[in-house]
Amino acid sequence: IFASFLVASAVALYAPVPCAAQEPSSSRPTLDYEFFKTRVEPIFLKKRFPDHARCYTCHEVSRHGGGPLSLERLSPGTSFWTEEQSRTNFQIVSKLVTPGNPLTSLLLLMPLAPEVGGIADTHQGGRQFTSQDDSDWKNIAAWVRGQKAGGSSER
Fold first, then answer.
1. Does the structure show a pLDDT above 50 at 5?
2. Any bridge partners for residue 123, and if so which?
3. Nearest-CA neighbor of 39 among 143, 115, 119, 146?
4. Distance (Å, rounded) from C-alpha 44 to C-alpha 36?
5. What is the pLDDT of residues 26-53, one digit of tens each?
6. 3-state class (DSSP) for residue 134
7. Are 89 and 95 in contact (CB under 8 A)?
């Protein structure tokens, strides 16, 4: 876990900053909480493949040791986060993306196969996404691009 964190930190620090990221923050889209809660957050609980664990299994805060993607612990007997926990998850996950640019966002790069633009070989959870055409990858990318829960995109 620590090694993955170091690699992710190095990538974040030394990756070239795209021109879009250098524009004033007013030109960047905002991340929509409702879209996150309804379309992105459920992905963390979803069993993606027979041979992969749910994101939550490894990234729940007590198991992940406070790493960059440390999701709130579900309350016993529940299958989803409370409103307060979802807002905390939103704040945590928002730090791992570059609004408007999915391909510089660690949240999307870490679990994406290298041959399609990702750095999954540094992710201990492996290649969760083998393609950018994966519907879950597309949902997260849409959120990063600024898509709103109602379907519109703000720029």
1. no
2. none
3. 143
4. 11
5. 578 999 999 999 999 999 888 867 666 6
6. coil
7. no
